[in-house]
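Take a record:
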Amino acid sequence: MEFQQKLEETRDLFFPARLPGEAGMTARNVDADTFRKEVTEIYAAVFTDRDAHPYNPNEELAAEYRTLHREHILIENSRGEVVGWVRGRMEDPDTFYLGTSGLLPEYRAQGLAATGMPRFFEYLHTLGYERVTSQHHPHNRAAMILQLKCGFSFEGINLDERWGPMVKMVFFFGDGRRAEFERRFGFEQYPKTPQPAGR
């Protein structure tokens, strides 16, 4: 089965997705134009003080880049109003990159991300991904704490003139990749028995 066919069939199994909780929220997968229009309408209310270097990529390169697998998900309340979003793309053949997400302030702290993320990750794993990455400004503690609770690890830090410093995080499907991550980057184990003074 070709990937595009698998993608369409898997999307039909997972979306639209009813999010847990009493608010009656739904996650809906949409095309890029619909996503851009809807997110533009609420972006300033989600991120009230955010700025970035103007994004003006070479159009030929941007067209090639858009051929990668992408996801554009809108979060709607029980009245069908868009209150948040999740957007991401293939980073490499093993990895899905969570590029941006946001939720209007009045819908935060209801556990939507913590309960919705496992379902989205199940979808990504079904597509064949083995890891998920994201990047956050070092001061975006809420996002990083949430992802740590969901099983992410810190992978590194990037310095970028467009976005500033960004902490990169990674989530692994399966214990094998996590074990390899810890083997390559873990701290040396502390001794299990006390050592004599002076050593």
In short: Residues 112-127 form the longest helix (16 residues). Helices lie at 3-14, 32-46, 59-65, 112-127, 141-149, 175-185. Strands lie at 17-18, 26-29, 70-76, 82-92, 95-103, 131-136, 153-160, 164-172. The chain is about 35% helix and 30% strand.
